Amino acid sequence: MSLENYRFPTSRLRMGNIESGKTPLVLVACGSFSPITYLHLRMFSLAHDYIKSNTNFTIVGTYLSPVGDAYQKLGLAPAHNRIQMAELAIQERTQTTDYLMVDPWEAMHSEYMPTAKVLDHFDHEVNTVLGGVENSDGEKQPVRVALLAGSDLVQTMSAPGVWSQDDLAHILGKYGAFVIERAGTDMQEAMGALKEWEDNIYSIPQVVPNEISSTKVRLLSKRSMNIDYLVPTNVVNYIKEHRLYQD
After folding, report:
1. What's the predicted TM-score (pTM) here?
2. CATH number of the domain to which 40 belongs
3. Using CA atoms in the order 142, 148, 151, 152, what is the torsion angle rounded to 10 degrees?
4. Residue 160's domain spans which residues?
5. pLDDT digits (tens, 9 = 90+) for 65-109
6. What's the domain count of the chain?
7. Residue 120 counted as domain residue
8. Maximum Cα–Cα distance across the chain
């Protein structure tokens, strides 16, 4: 993987005919995706339904941004494997993931890239390089970029010393977040220290509780147990072929 050969993915980005009066939106999910699960994909479907029914945004693109190897999290497969698994996962297209793409930019860096810088990257590519998107009146307009995350991640934002205040102000103040409620995380508690940006944080309920996690998938794989229907079939096959998450 080389940044010299990097090209921002736009194959599923809706560049035109955006309804006038609507704010075009790009959602970015940052994470390890080690491996990617159906819950990661389900997050985009939940966000799609919520945004369509409760906001004035219209989704023009959604992205998975895997972390780089410098993140050094326990159980983190090499970046090139995680990128490939994410690409395999989005081949199972549905109506609500038609705009889903994998951006390898973050994972290509040898150094750790803070979430604030990752969102800046998307803002630059979509609004500066591409110049925004075109509405139904033929006029170009800027795209709102926002973070898509689980409430467990947002809970860490309220924990003292985990995130810098400057990064929080940049992420939640400039971009905002759409937060999927997850079992075991109290949203009020997760939002505890984030009241300053509460108008920029959208809480999305999980109507059908889903407790799939990459940690559980890795544990099952390590024990040579079945992981079918927890991750996409082609990802199951990739894990087996490359002997990932085994002792």
Report:
1. 0.95
2. 3.40.50.620
3. -130
4. 21-241
5. 999 999 988 889 999 999 999 999 999 777 767 899 999 999 999
6. 1
7. yes
8. 58
